[in-house]
Amino acid sequence: MNGKRLTIDFFHDVVCSWCFNISPRLRTLAEEFDLDIRHRTYVLQANRDEMIARFGSMDGAKAEILRHWAASRAASDTPEAFNIEAMREADFEYPSGMPAALACKAAEIRGGQQAHWAMFDAIQKAHISEARNIADAAVLHDIAAAIGLDADRLAADMASAETRALVEADRAEARRLQVRTVPTILVRDTGHRFVNGPLEDLRAQLLANLRLVA
User: DSBA-like thioredoxin domain spans which residues (predicted)?
Assistant: First the structure.
């Protein structure tokens, strides 16, 4: 290879169980190949009304999404990390990903892409492994503090028009690129979109892209 550093757009939603599977695989590949990973917050349903419009009801939303969790668990490297029964029994409605997307962007404003990724992974763990309500501002505050971010500063940034605009810019970019599902992994240098799968499949796709730019 010629040492070319590929730029990867990772379109994700914190409530996406398939994103939960692919994020650690991308971390492995980023270390192996020195990838430039750009995190794009792509919230599929931004609020309760959008969830009801998509799934028919909030109960229907939880039931359908937990079926996705079960499929994701079957394809996961760490199936024990999926706490499906705890989320099924949780006494809150299944959360929209918008508050957590704002938290991830707020982390990015202060700490760049690595801070965004750290916040994204920590929120996903809280959501999928711990069945916490990640639409709750107090939960997001605790997560930020636990990974060493300035939680009070993050809360203020989450409420800012700048942060909201950055989240909406990512959603607009997804629409421009005709991204319709998460996760979507897009190689900016070649226009290739990864087919989601196990680590070895992702590695093979990455090597093919590196050959294209060699």
Answer: 7-197
The overall pTM is greater than 0.85: yes
- The average pLDDT across 62-86 equals 98
Q: What's the residue count for the chain?
A: 214
Distance CA 198, CA 144 (A): 29
Inform me whether the pLDDT recorded for 1 exceeds 90.
Answer: no
Tell me the average pLDDT across 158-174.
97
Q: Are 178 and 171 in contact (CB under 8 A)?
A: no
- Angle, helices 58-74 vs 48-55, to 10°: value is 80
* CATH of the structural domain 7-213, one choice from 3.40.30.10, 3.10.310.30, 3.40.50.300, 3.40.50.1010: 3.40.30.10
